[in-house]
Amino acid sequence: MQTKEVGTKTALSKWVSLKGEAMAAAACGVLLALGWGIGYVAHGAATILYGLAMLVGGYAKAKEGLQTLIKEKEIDVNLLMIVAAIGAACIGYGAEGAMLILIFAASGAMETYAMEKSARDISKLKELKPETGVLYLNGQETVVPIEQLRVGDLLIVKPGERIPTDGVVQSGASAVNQASITGESIPMDKQKGDEVYGGTINGQGALYVEVTRGSESTLFAKIIKLVQEAQQEMPKSQRFVERFERIYARIVIGVTLLLLVLPPYAFGWSWQETGYRAMVFLVVASPCALVASIMPAMLSAISNCARKGLLFKGGAHLENLSRVKVIAFDKTGTLTEGRPVVTDLVPYRAFTEEEVLQAAASLECLSTHPLARAVVDEARKRGVPLDRPDDFEALTSWGVQASLNGERWKVGKAGLMDPSFLLDAVVLRAQQLEAAGKTVVMVQNSAGIVGIIGLQDRIREQTKRAIEELRKVGIASAMITGDQRVTADAIAKEAGIDLVFSELLPEDKVNMVKQLKQTYGHVAMVGDGVNDAPALAVSSVGIAMGVAGSDAALETADLVLMNDDLLKIKEAVMLGRKMGVVVKQNMAFAIAVILLLIFGNLWSGIALPLGVVGHEGSTILVILNGLRLLVNGNERGEE
After folding, report:
1. Which stretches within 365-450 are classed as H helix?
2. How many angstroms separate the CA atoms of 172 and 195, rounded?
3. Which of 15, 85, 484, 580 sees the fewest Cβ atoms within 10 Å?
4. What is the model's pLDDT at position 609?
5. CA 527 centroid distance within chain
6. pTM of the prediction?
């Protein structure tokens, strides 16, 4: 409970910080506009408004810059922008100084918003972690916090309950939904000696589980830890930008100080001219245009993506996506629909497909197992009428049996069938279906096996085309899944995927993504489940399915496909590439203008209004160039 309260307070403080920055930027803009409006008739009042605009909009950045200066002995861009704005105001250009503050404050608020959106990392994930377990000792059941559980304790897990911690089944049998850990779409049958994982959901049977790991060492706890560690890693590009900003700021401040002292002795300038040119340099050298080179383009591209059902949590993720060389896909719920469907009906003993389906669905309609629901759904889709069985009995981990129209029927695994009825032809056909990655259900009456039903998690309608479209733009595809090798190979072959990595636990998926990053550089990961969250976090770009995705996957991912449309990934990649081109254009132009103004000021001197026009004009131009991505982001972007 304490952890949740701390998380809530942290989220609240982030929201207050974001809201404060946005309000400060808006207030700065209002004051600046008022100053412009009355500047022609009340110059003194306009000056006061400009000063208030600078104070309101620049307070947070000035405080941050001073803290960096005091604690780290470094000059950053925050402080440089404040000094440049004050310098402009000191030589009579308060409006220009306020404009510098407005642009910088707005970009800071946007950056905070992007960071806050991506920082809600594992709040939903932690909520899935069990808090209590039922300890079974000397015939007594006691509910205890999972922190008090010790290795060797015996737990009882009742039907429908979440398994508290990792352990081994000592008695009982049930089907356990392990989707949160392995991604398996079909619950796994568990019996004595089988391992179970904390955070997974028990099915219809009761299990007695011996604890094998403490609450902090469970596989589910490792998932949370992996997400935390991955999100704390700072990308190389971010470290480079921070180093560049501080170096640039120190250079500009150093050159400005030199310009305030040396020219009267070196060039014979008057002190008035020296101060004037130094302030012009400080204004034209401020990195406003450089800052605007990236953010407006990123926000425009993100807005474009949002209209197409692509929700990015920050512009950097779009930039990273443009560099991706391989995309790793989870299987269940991502490449596939996440639920089994009937794919094959093989009748025997003069039965038709409809008769086999009618018998199987009539028995399965009383079961809650996912395979049973798939059989019943197929019968309803075909319009097959169902009968009501008598003496129904669910055999956990095996299937069901009941009387139907006076005859005894069984529906389930081959092990449930009478061995004498398992003829060679029936066994061979079942093996062929299993080799194709399908789950086999047999149907038997008193005379023998009357049919075989094959079920499989079907791939999404657009999966194959999406993989092909990515291949056309030079992006390879891989599958990393917790499913069995045979199933994974079958789905990969149907989808057209070449790289297949199967039978992976969440920590194995993380290691696989890291290996792909070492081989290909930038790697994206697409997933939908809690088990995918660590791999999503460690990838260059984590992509979650918006409709089918779990809360944990949605919170961890950098990009959410709102309509689960895999074809949109290519559109995002191409838009990211186009954005990269625009950003390079903007940066080259901004640097060229800054250098031109600096050399012009040092060589022959330029008027401050001309310097401000050149500086602010370049800023406006790079912003407008970035805004083009709002409407023409569909270009191929391969420049």
Report:
1. 370-382, 424-435
2. 13
3. 15
4. 61
5. 9
6. 0.61
Q: Alpha-carbon distance 500 to 456, whole Å?
A: 18
- Where a domain ends, among 227, 242, 258? 227
146 and 100 in one domain?
no
Identify whether the C-beta of residue 233 lies closer than 8 Å to the C-beta of residue 537.
no
In the chain, helix, strand, coil percent, each to 5?
A: 55, 20, 25
330 is catalytic: yes
What angle is formed at CA 91 by the lines to CA 88 and CA 92, rounded to 5 degrees?
90
CB 174 within 8 A of CB 208: no
Sheet hosting strand 207-211, strand order edge to edge = 140-145, 132-137, 154-157, 207-211, 167-172, 195-196
Query: How confident is the model over 472-498, as a mean pLDDT?
Result: 87
Question: CA nearest 173: which of 159, 157, 156, 190?
Answer: 190
Q: Taking each helix axis from N to C terminus, what angle separates 94-119 and 43-72, rounded to the nearest 10 degrees?
A: 50
Q: 111 and 173: one domain?
A: no
Query: Is there a contact between 105 and 65 (Cβ–Cβ < 8 Å)?
Result: no
Q: List strand residue ranges (DSSP E) for 446-597, in order.
A: 448-459, 476-480, 499-501, 523-527, 541-545, 559-561
- Amino acid letter at 574? M
**Same domain for 87 and 154?**
no
Give the CA-trace dihedral at 441, 446, 449, 451, to 10 degrees.
Answer: -60
Between 413 and 628, the higher pLDDT residue = 413
Query: Count of CB atoms within 10 A of residue 545's CB?
Result: 27
**How many angstroms separate the CA atoms of 552 and 335, rounded?**
19
Other C-beta atoms closer than 10 Å to the C-beta of 44 total: 9
- Marked catalytic residue, from 330, 457, 483, 564: 330
User: What span, in angstroms and rounded, lies between the C-alpha atoms of 553 and 560?
Assistant: 9
Q: What is the CATH number of the domain that holds 168?
A: 2.70.150.10
- State the amino acid at position 526 in one-letter form: V
Task: Please report where in the chains the tokens 């404040």 appear, as a residue.
Answer: 82
Length of the chain: 639
